[in-house]
Design goal:
Layout lengths: L1 E7 L9 E5 L2 E6 L4 E5 L6 E5 L2 E2 L13 E6 L1 H23 L6 H20 L3 E6 L1
Parallel strand pairs: 1-7
Antiparallel strand pairs: 1-4, 2-3, 2-5, 5-6, 7-8
């Protein structure tokens, strides 16, 4: 089955192609803002991967074959990215003022652990594959 797949991921990973993976094997790679006609097996899930970022499995709905799919960056990942780095910069600025306080180090450790949990969560949800009308 042939499906047109378009990559619209914005600034994230512009220089690297995204690999389309089906049955554990790469079937195509799509560069920044490129559209490509790809032959896929509708019975197998489709995922995309760029370095460590992946998408959830996309399955073609039974009897509903889309003409076009779009790969986009998960908007929650962008929010997590900007929020976490913003917090790190604020924390770095405040740590100079409160470096003798006892509550600073547990807060830093908690922030690093939460960042690690969030990073692990978004590594497998970094991209979204969605149908385009």
């Amino acid at each position: 089955m042939h499906i047109e797949i378009k990559r619209r991921t914005g600034f994230f990973g512009m220089a690297s192609p995204i690999k389309l993976i089906q049955v554990g094997q790469p079937i195509a790679s799509i560069s920044h803002d490129q559209s490509q006609l790809v032959t896929i097996d509708p019975s197998q899930p489709l995922t995309v991967k760029l370095m460590m970022l992946r998408s959830q499995h996309y399955r073609v709905k039974h009897g509903m074959v889309p003409d076009k799919l779009e790969i986009v960056l998960n908007p929650q990942l962008k929010q997590f990215y900007f929020l976490s780095y913003g917090l790190f910069f604020v924390f770095a600025g405040l740590s100079g003022l409160f470096y003798t306080q006892g509550w600073l180090w547990p807060l830093l450790i908690m922030l690093i652990v939460l960042y690690g949990v969030g990073l692990r969560y978004f590594l497998v949800r970094g991209y979204l594959i969605r149908e385009v009308e």
